[in-house]
Amino acid sequence: MSLAKSSLFSLARSKTLRWLIAIGLVALIIFKIRTAPVSVDSYEVERGTVVAEVMGTGTLEAKVSATISSRIQEKIDEIPVDQNDYVEEGRLLVRLDDEELKRRVAVAEATLEAAEASVERVRADEARANAVAEEARSNYDRISELYEKDAASKAELDKALEQMRVAEAGLQSVKAATAEAERRVITAEKNLLLQKEQLSRTKITSPFGGLIIRRDLDPGDTVVPGGSILQLISTNVIWVSAWVDETVMDEVSPGQTARIVFRSLPDMDFKGEVSRLGREVDRETREFLVDVQARELPGNWAIGQRAEVFIQTGRRDSVLYLPYEFIHWRDGTPGVFMSVDGKARWREITLGAHGEEEVEVRSGVDDGALVIKVSSADNKALVDGQRVDIR
Fold it and tell me: Has residue 75 been placed in a domain?
């Protein structure tokens, strides 16, 4: 019985030993992996020139643009231009159906002619009425003189007075008719001008020379007042309206050189210049608008496309600088890793001007110091105190 117990105890101890050995091997492997040196690339800090830049993101816009629309509701007869067409000022862009308006103009012209003929007629009547009134006044004056000399009776005087009053009343009536006829002429003239103006609105011309960037309607469509038919821009000034953080407001001013990077061509820079600054900060994003005029554009571009602008705000010569990829941040504080006795050691630094690919280092490292970063072939993050293998 004791022999059996001894055998079971030996078997259990053997299994436990094997488990302990296995666990020890795994722990050793993990320790080796964790403590194995990380392959790193190095960079020697040196002095040079850093061109400081401020970045903003925005969209390509035209300084001058117009929505080509109609002031009347009518069917479109012709649109002789299309997207991507350059047009000169005054060129016909849209022609609307004008048949009904031409008929209205003809009616207005006939109405004016009739009103003018009516004025001629009542003016002739007025001339006759004026002659009759003059004759009646003259006859009354003659009878009055005769009456004073007892050469005419009171009845003759009263009759002459009545005739004069009737003639003058007739003259006043004809004058009123003349004034009314003249007012009808004025109304007819204004109506004719209105109808001609409406007719002129069937031809829509370009308000300035520029580029058609969009066409919204086609011949046969009915346009309503204010409805967009075409979108026209002037290509004289094309800029990127970019949002820039308010913290750099004092560094940005009109006339500064800038480079524009379109998202369609991320590896190319296009020349630009700060044209104007916005005077209102977005209360949510704390950014303000900066308009950067494009001095050159890619072969294919479109209003509204996204772009980044990099505004040159200063130049720093003979300063220490580092490529951005060698900067390591800790809780918002910039620093670098350096190799000390074969181990990575993080050191805080102070940054200065930010350039396109590098940043000025004002303190924390010396000229000629060797800083490190994880090799691109090794997908690991550096840890303070970690063993490193410098390439």
Answer: yes
Shared domain check, 258 and 144? no
DSSP helix/strand/coil, 27: helix
**What are the tens digits of pLDDT across the range 88-128?**
999 999 999 999 999 999 999 999 999 999 999 999 998 99
> Which residues fall within 8 angstroms of residue 60, CB to CB, at 6 or more apart?
238, 239, 240, 262, 294, 301, 302, 303, 304, 305, 307
Report the C-alpha gap between 62 and 84 in whole angstroms.
15
Dihedral, CA of residue 16, residue 22, residue 27 and residue 32, to nearest 10: 150
pTM over 0.85: no
Pair 248, 156 in one domain: no
Task: Quote the mean pLDDT of the chain.
Answer: 89
Residues 42 and 364: their CA atoms lie apart, in Å, by 17
Structural domain boundaries, residue 212: 64-97+202-233
182 lies in some domain:
yes
104 in the same domain as 185: yes
Helix 99-148 with 154-200: angle, nearest 10 deg = 160
Segment of 5-9, 22-26, 368-372 carrying the highest mean pLDDT: 368-372
Residues 189 and 207 in one domain: no
Residue at 7 is within a domain? no
- Please name which of 324, 272, 299 lies closest in space to residue 58, comparing C-alpha atoms: 272
288 phi, psi to nearest 5 deg: -130, 160
